[in-house]
């Protein structure tokens, strides 16, 4: 192995992209109070340090910080998932235990059994500052004055800033560079607690423990390898103690600690762009030539005349060829941009466990029927996205008239309107700021390998909280909710129109009773209509004439509803079982 004296360090994308909720944090969740959490936790003995139990965190969050219990659990659960490498079966077993809890007291007792790494958790809480609103910064940047009153911002401070920092890897890098001193103070053994980022002196902390550096590895990754195309990723603490690095990182073998000043300077000097980031994938990734099903003529209101009636071919790229196989989680990306009036259907090895970014898709149908790590759907309009099981997160951001059909661990929605979500999820859907008219419905489809894929993703059908959204942010009011449950009368199951191999023949977990009754009643109406036609005693010519009338009306309905475009676009079959 060729080892460089300086190594390469970068900010890990997943904690920021999916761990930092895209809503400004509670005003009490600031540096000073987070520092107090560390001190309080250490004073609680084994229940607080080095592992922080949920019971201690709940007490801090609800009684000290005045967070709601629901929000406290969201933070804890998200950090638990991101910092514990549980197997799919362990995740499923955990969900099964929560599913069998009949009362809230039972659920609380189960929650009290879990704990998170204390130092990693305080870092997790600190990076929620990524979305903190700054009036001064807004004015300097020339942004429009916020619509909230000044007093509401001072007291509440939880409106969502503009932009999508979850996709902006540069903002993640700048955040760490700017706030490294405060983060190191949170992880230190000293209790200086200055409470101001500008006044934290990198040299004032003294020494940094190996445990603190290990915790910092939650948000910083790296490599000491220069010569291979596929870099070998190493934990931050392992890089920092390499013989060729310690003179820069400030590590002392005698004390097994780091000089705070040297360590922070080393981090800042060798932080670079994440080689597995969105921007790196766009610049250096491999272009994927997945077949597109182009819209044929007669596209209704979505097509114009001449050359403009043709679909716009989207751009798809991946970095799968440079990501080490043992480090695909959170690093392997597939980016789909500007897919317009297309149908894409895919199930492949490249897709499996990848993080997918779908950006600016318009009037399209996207079937990604492989088990996935995480998915971001941003700035899309009039698009239907059908996903294989997503073992981690889905984020729907700044979308309009988008339908998502998915089983996933967690889904969050921000800045979106007129969106429909058909879900199977063990966590409550998170509805953040800027949403309007979000329709929630139970997961309503299946395809042959689905059950096996769900098992591999650690998702069980026995726990589905699709109908219990949690609204986070200042623009939610109980008297004017921004979400509603799909009325059973408007509910239809969804058929995945591709031939695949596998044992699944029904919707995992079935449908809620009221929706199943609606489907059954509709089927009875169809059966009754078929009997009526059969018993009408029509002659052969009458049957032909009647069939022609029904087919003509059906085609009119297809065109009026836009379903004709969807059916026409299915000309290209599902692409699967290949390397791309």
Automatic annotation (TrEMBL):
<dbReference type="InterPro" id="IPR036223">
    <property type="entry name" value="CAP_C_sf"/>
</dbReference>
<feature type="compositionally biased region" description="Gly residues">
    <location>
        <begin position="296"/>
        <end position="307"/>
    </location>
</feature>
<dbReference type="GO" id="GO:0031616">
    <property type="term" value="C:spindle pole centrosome"/>
</dbReference>
<dbReference type="GO" id="GO:0051661">
    <property type="term" value="P:maintenance of centrosome location"/>
</dbReference>
<dbReference type="GO" id="GO:0051684">
    <property type="term" value="P:maintenance of Golgi location"/>
</dbReference>
<dbReference type="InterPro" id="IPR016098">
    <property type="entry name" value="CAP/MinC_C"/>
</dbReference>
<dbReference type="Pfam" id="PF07986">
    <property type="entry name" value="TBCC"/>
</dbReference>
<feature type="domain" description="C-CAP/cofactor C-like">
    <location>
        <begin position="308"/>
        <end position="474"/>
    </location>
</feature>
<feature type="region of interest" description="Disordered">
    <location>
        <begin position="295"/>
        <end position="314"/>
    </location>
</feature>
<keyword id="KW-0963">Cytoplasm</keyword>
<dbReference type="InterPro" id="IPR006599">
    <property type="entry name" value="CARP_motif"/>
</dbReference>
<keyword id="KW-0206">Cytoskeleton</keyword>
<comment type="similarity">
    <text>Belongs to the TBCC family.</text>
</comment>
<protein>
    <recommendedName>
        <fullName>TBCC domain-containing protein 1</fullName>
    </recommendedName>
</protein>
<dbReference type="InterPro" id="IPR012945">
    <property type="entry name" value="Tubulin-bd_cofactor_C_dom"/>
</dbReference>
<dbReference type="InterPro" id="IPR039589">
    <property type="entry name" value="TBCC1"/>
</dbReference>
<dbReference type="InterPro" id="IPR017901">
    <property type="entry name" value="C-CAP_CF_C-like"/>
</dbReference>
